């Protein structure tokens, strides 16, 4: 039976290489087993994550940073016949993984031949067949663009040898953050717990954390000391403060969301989802709540008493995040079906769909002025969407992303996942650097004044200032 089951699983997996959904039978008398690609991705994600964490730990023990590793597998040799002498010490070829089908058109080089660049600078601008703009980032070290091997208008592919660069020598291990000074404020320790959410109170005086093994913990943001716990012994996997800071909503492993007062008193429950709730968000005026769940829906609730107002159908699999626009007139959802959607919360009408990611979309957020949307994905990228529907692709992190947040002043985007947290310049699209720890970030949040970034994962939360 074990061999038969193994063959059956292997066969289902191989069928998903050709089709998006499989229905098969273990035995003629058994009910059908159904599996789609998104569900398979969700099932194998913990194994992939553990594998990546193991590799990162091995590199750390060897004193090697990820910025020191260069994967150069050229599938396209330069047309100009680069002589072997060009690859002397300090010079190396540059290749990039391209999104989607791995094909794009080079629009222009952003750095001229012979000119220097800083770590993480954008070197070239491409456009995919679908219209998305892709900027190719420099390595994690400063250097000089020695030669380019593709001309504007030329069609290029993943791992083509597009440029040769000279990189400045750096001591090992390389610093994890290249964009600015990082100042540690404190670390909130939650031993033996997997901290999955962190959030600031609207006045910035408190932090709340939730985990899969304990109730919500409230911390003094000035000192990092735990002030109290809320919710008895019930595990809390999501949390959201109301805009006035007088209430917060949490959910556990089941379909129910609980709303409590700021002091922890139970007020009411939201019941309607068929499965775990993954995200909760208050409307800017505090009158409504939105939730996202495993049952492929988002829902809108009356925050005065918990009455369900709307059920938003449209995603093909679990909805991973939900966010209100700053003016409260639109809802934004992300899903493991590789899309984000925009809705009218007043009517439940679907307004728009954002497509382009190659894997599950873990989170979607609005810019502070409401003019743009940012999405993070397991495909290792962040994308910024404007009115043109041609997203700007932000890469450079190198691992799957689980969460993101736009800074209150709109200048930066932080995203976290395997390998820590990356920060980008939101206007230029420049990858400023990656911050180590936690190594598996599941949630992050900027303080209301934008001075501090809290990152949650593993068994702790770190609070740090980026910059002087």
Automatic annotation (TrEMBL):
WD repeats lie at residues 188-229, 270-311, 312-353, 354-385. SMART domains: WD40. Keywords: Repeat, WD repeat. The keyword Repeat applies. Pfam families: WD40. InterPro entries: WD40/YVTN_repeat-like_dom_sf, WD40_PAC1, WD40_repeat_dom_sf, WD40_rpt, WD_LIS1/nudF_dynein_reg. The keyword Repeat applies. This is WD40 repeat domain-containing protein. It comes from Dactylosporangium sucinum.
């Amino acid at each position: 039976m074990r061999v038969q089951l193994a063959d059956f699983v292997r066969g289902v997996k191989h069928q998903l290489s050709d089709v998006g959904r499989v229905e098969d039978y273990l035995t003629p008398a058994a009910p059908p087993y159904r599996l789609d690609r998104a569900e398979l991705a969700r099932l194998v994600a913990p194994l992939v994550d553990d594998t990546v964490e193991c590799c990162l730990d091995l590199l750390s023990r060897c004193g090697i940073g990820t910025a020191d590793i260069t994967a150069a597998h050229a599938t396209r040799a330069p047309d100009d016949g680069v002589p072997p002498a060009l690859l002397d010490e300090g010079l190396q070829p540059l290749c990039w993984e391209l999104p989607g089908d791995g094909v794009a058109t080079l629009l222009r080089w952003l750095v001229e031949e012979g000119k220097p660049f800083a770590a993480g600078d954008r070197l070239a601008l491409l456009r995919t067949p679908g219209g998305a703009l892709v900027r190719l980032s420099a390595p994690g070290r400063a250097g000089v663009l020695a030669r380019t091997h593709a001309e504007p208008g030329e069609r290029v592919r993943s791992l083509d040898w597009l440029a040769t660069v000279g990189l400045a020598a750096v001591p090992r291990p390389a610093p994890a953050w290249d964009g600015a000074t990082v100042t540690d404020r404190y670390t909130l320790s939650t031993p033996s717990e997997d901290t999955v959410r962190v959030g600031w109170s609207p006045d910035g005086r408190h932090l709340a954390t939730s985990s899969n093994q304990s109730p919500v913990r409230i911390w003094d943001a000035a000192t990092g000391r735990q002030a109290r716990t809320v919710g008895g012994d019930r595990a809390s996997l999501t949390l959201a403060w109301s805009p006035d800071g007088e209430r917060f909503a949490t959910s556990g492993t089941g379909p129910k969301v609980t709303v409590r007062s700021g002091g922890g008193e139970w007020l009411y429950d939201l019941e309607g989802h068929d499965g775990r709730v993954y995200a909760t968000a208050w409307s800017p005026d505090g009158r409504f709540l939105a939730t996202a769940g495993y049952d492929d829906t988002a829902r809108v609730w009356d925050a005065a008493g918990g009455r369900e107002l709307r059920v938003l159908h449209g995603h093909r699999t679990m909805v991973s995040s939900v966010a209100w626009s700053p003016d409260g007139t639109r809802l934004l959802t992300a899903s493991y079906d590789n899309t984000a959607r925009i809705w009218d919360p007043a009517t439940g009408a679907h307004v728009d769909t954002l497509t382009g990611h190659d894997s599950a979309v873990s989170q979607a957020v609005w810019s502070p002025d409401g003019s743009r949307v940012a999405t993070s994905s397991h495909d290792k990228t962040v994308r910024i969407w404007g009115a043109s529907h041609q997203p700007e692709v932000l890469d450079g992190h190198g691992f799957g992303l689980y969460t993101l947040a736009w800074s209150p002043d709109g200048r930066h985007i932080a995203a976290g996942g395997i390998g820590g947290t990356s920060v980008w310049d939101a206007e230029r699209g420049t990858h400023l650097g990656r911050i180590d720890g936690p190594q598996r970030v599941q949630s992050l949040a900027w303080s209301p004044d934008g001075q501090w970034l809290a990152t949650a994962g593993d068994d702790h939360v770190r609070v740090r200032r980026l910059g002087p």
